[in-house]
Amino acid sequence: MFFLKELPTRRMLETYAARYPGMEAGTVGDALRLLRRASLLLRELDAYFSAHGLSQSRFLVLVVIDREPEATGLLASVIADRLDISRPVVTETVKALTQAGLLTSVPDPDDGRARRIALTTRGQAVLADRLPGYFALIAEFMGRADEPTA
Amino acid sequence: MFFLKELPTRRMLETYAARYPGMEAGTVGDALRLLRRASLLLRELDAYFSAHGLSQSRFLVLVVIDREPEATGLLASVIADRLDISRPVVTETVKALTQAGLLTSVPDPDDGRARRIALTTRGQAVLADRLPGYFALIAEFMGRADEPTA
DNA sequence: CCTCAATGGTTAGGGTCCTAACCAATACCC
DNA sequence: GGGTATTGGTTAGGACCCTAACCATTGAGG
């Protein structure tokens, strides 16, 4: 996360750019604004989810499973790959969601190592309940004027 | 952090947009790309810093102190405000940087509660050593082509 | 003055994420 | 077939960030 309020001034960046060829001041400024803006949005999304007993990752786990055309569920390793997070996080997240009654996890009939993770009816309902607010929050955020740049 | 590899398709977003007036599919798609792109950059920056015994926050603490024209140092609460992070994180970060010899923290002569936090010579040197790689990493990242969008 | 609110800072406890190391089952290959 | 590598998953331990609650000092008002 990157929340630095006052980004380096264009002047500072240009001083560096002059010293290190290959670095372009405008590009770096763009990157820092990207980081700050995304971090602020992530913070708002985290607040939204935690107010509803979820988190970014828990929500996205529900999303990728729901998105799956196969009704048989996903493997944890597939979820880790789709979400680009580590497998231990999937283990923990799936455990929490299963305990909350939003997921089921049954042994894979074809592979003794694997488990098939699927949404329960309640999981589908929770996801459907959260999506409108999720999109609304994002749309509202994006509509807000950018902060004035130094 | 938000690393979802396959973002929702335009079609999916449009389905939602049709259902929830006020939500515009293109805008939400932009936001999700913003989140993913920033998360990837944050991950690379974290790796860069941790390879050098730092972290985003530690680095930024050095930056904001260095940037300060006053030579007397900053208060922890000011650092927390500039970086937009909680005060306990500043307490912990400053402690680590002080133990590493990059910062000094001396009682404020005018306020018995406060401490003035300043860079040591070594802290300045470490910051100067990291800045070029930091900017280079960012510039290189921004130069990379965006991932193909679904 | 003397009380009480505000400010500077720390501690305690919890959430999320990571890597490294580890089982168990499957797949490859001679 | 039997040894070895690979794959699915979990456990252990640590880094970083947060809120709530807590001291200590300063400031403001009657």
From TrEMBL, chains A, B:
Record-linked PROSITE patterns: HTH_MARR_2 (PS50995)
Key words, A-Z: DNA-binding
Annotated GO MF terms: DNA binding; DNA-binding transcription factor activity
The protein, known as: DNA-binding transcriptional regulator, MarR family
SUPFAM superfamilies: Winged helix' DNA-binding domain
Domain HTH marR-type: 28-150
Lineage: superkingdom: Bacteria
One GO BP annotation of this record: response to stress
Gene3D superfamilies reported in the protein's UniProt record: Winged helix-like DNA-binding domain superfamily/Winged helix DNA-binding domain
